[in-house]
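Q: I have two molecules that I believe assemble together. Could you output structure tokens for the complex as a whole instead of separate predictions?
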Amino acid sequence: MLTYAARRLLVAIPTLLGVATVVFLLLRLLPGDPAIVIAGPTATPEEIHNIRVQLGLTLPGWQQYLGFMVRLAHGDLGISTRTGAPVIQEISTRVPYTATLALASLVLAIALGVAAGILAARRRNTAADVAISGGAVFGVSMPTYWLGLMLIVVFAVRLRVLPAAGTDRGIESLVLPAVTLALFSMGLVARQTRSAMLEVLGQDFVRTARAKGAGRAAVLLRHALRNALLPILTTIGLQFGTLLGGAVLTETVFAWPGIGRLLVDSIGARDYPVVQGVVLLLSVSFIVINLLTDLLYAYVDPRIRYG
Amino acid sequence: MSIPGSGTAESAAPALGATAELAPVQLAPLAGGGRLWARLRTHPSAIVGIGILAFYVAASLLVPLVLRWNPVDQSLNDAFLPASAGHPLGTDDLGRDELIRLVYGARYTLSLGFGAVAIGLLVGLPLGAVSGYFGGWIDLLGQRLTDVMLAFPNILLALALVAVLGVGLQNVIISVGITSIPIFVRLVRASTLSIRELPYVEAARALGVPATRILLRHVVPNALAPVIVQASLQLGAAILIAAGLGFLGLGVQAPTPEWGSMLGLSRNYIFSDPNLATFAGLAIFGAVLAFNLMGDGLRDALDPRLK
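A: Yes, here they are, computed for all two components at once.
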């Protein structure tokens, strides 16, 4: 297990370096002089020069790259050109909001998605199955940003039971954004659970378990679900990326002060150091989560370690 | 890996890489369009998907013949009119007919989707085939590069690219197109890996057929079935992302009647005139749903186990 973990960690390193390189190139790929773009149309030549120095654009390319990587290793992501505060500080105050939102959505997506998938598989080709499978396709086709707006219209404007935006009503404020963000993943998890369960339910060991008189719930959960778990886990692991990306849109709809909204605001304000920082953070979290999911597989299914 | 709408997660094997490896999907080689159509025709979800698309195409061709409003010209005296015979869906904040804007929007949305997927296919297919067929350092390099691209959570890469390239129809197509590349690389590579070991490829090699010809005549045509399924799902995903960029104000710009940017602008009137948001979002939802349903249908129609 330890060797496997070490090997997976080694494979992740080039990906991490690659992501950091792409993020570095992002600013350098800007058409024209990034300093002029960042400074805006009203800037004086001195201001432009200051930004150029601040971004290290006066140095040769390889020195910029090395400097970027070394500072990155020290957790230094530069200074926000909009607020003048360190990027890492701008981001870290927002992280708890995005983490709360993404985790709440993930819990919703797993709990409801897996339950719906099991139900659909057990009642295959009944009205319940058709409704769940249909609902799942709707879920993965729904633009989250539109769903969010519609939920605001219904629950905040018409029924007035939940707040339309912001965070000042605690858990009540979390309900609509979390449901909005969860729906897509819920649909995928339900579809995956259904097909994995169908595959397992047709197998001999499930019939044997039934034949020897094991209770319905025991067969379903202990025998079938446990063996169907691997593909379901794969889907769930991939949902982190979907949730992190989806947070950008959901946070904008609900004025949720997370890093997704910070990213959109920073793109609008041409605050590229913050854009770099957020893109980097989201991608690195995604890589780390994928790594943890892989290690979890090896734990759930010992065959993988020897594969 | 997962980009919204990518139902491939269902067929994905347990992820062992930093991101999920796509399992070589067991699909029959394409055997004549006639037989494919015969099987699609009996597939309920494919029929619904094709029906929605046919409705969109018919509406975008026919409605402008009947309703002679200009989708861009403003008429402030007519702002926020309710539905009437002259304006079947009412007017927007600048007095433009909502229906005619939606109908013209279909052209932009479909161009965005097809343009982006075309880029993904044109780059991803050859890269995947070469990577899988030749293996070695080309494969290693190609796979690490796709790892890096897949490490950006879905909409994030498109967002970062648009931040650099700038907004507008063409740049959105390029940005979303680039994000569609890695999934096709993975898919084609996985199929190629299994096809290159088949006897007929070995026979061709033994006969001294050049590698390019083997790839073009023997490998790629037999790897196409899963690509077609994925292309349909990817169309939905591309539309979802492109409209999401429009929604954030970072996609196709006003006054172009693109559904995402229409939805984004309608947010300002969500309390006074929620219909505007309803229609624009419904249009996006319908298009994504149509391609997802068609993808499901194609998958079943091309699956040899379901014959």
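A: One point stands out. Confidence is low (pLDDT under 50) at residues 1-25 of chain B.
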